[in-house]
Automatic annotation (TrEMBL):
Protein name as catalogued: CBCO1 protein
Record InterPro entries: CLAMP
Extent of the signal sequence: none
Membrane spanning stretches: none
Organism: Rhynochetos jubatus
Length: 129
């Protein structure tokens, strides 16, 4: 279902699609193990997508993407509804767990994801010759 939702057409032959599928699948199962509600699960998956789009489309550095994460998570735990952001349905403990997860899954491997999105790769040609 995730493959369909992400509109991956070359999952078996594209290393980029396979890597992204693995990343989203791992994130989804981590969020399920955290017992996130449906809205929390959706918000978490949006956050994963947001951070990857920052890297792939906007060519953000690690530092800039960390700042964007900080902005996105600002106000979690605040009682004042004006200060809380789009992710206000997470508790402070859940926000800490999300940051820990993002650290080990994305930020520690940021250079690899930069390479995935921005480095030209040779195409392997396979034929019967």
């Amino acid at each position: 279902k995730l493959e369909e939702f992400l509109n991956f057409k070359q999952l078996k032959t594209s290393s980029k699609e396979a890597i992204l599928m693995d990343y989203y699948t791992a994130g989804f199962w981590w969020a399920k193990e955290m017992n996130f509600s449906l809205i929390q699960l959706s918000g978490f998956m949006d956050l994963l997508n947001f951070l990857l789009e920052n890297l792939s489309d906007k060519h953000m550095t690690l530092g800039d993407n960390l700042k964007e994460l900080g902005k996105a998570m600002a106000g979690i735990g605040e009682t004042d509804s004006e200060r809380s952001g789009d992710l206000s349905f997470f508790s402070i403990e859940e926000a800490k767990a999300i940051i820990d997860y993002l650290n080990i899954s994305l930020f520690k491997h940021y250079k690899l994801y930069e390479y995935l999105f921005h480095s030209p790769r040779e195409q392997l040609v396979i034929s019967n010759e």
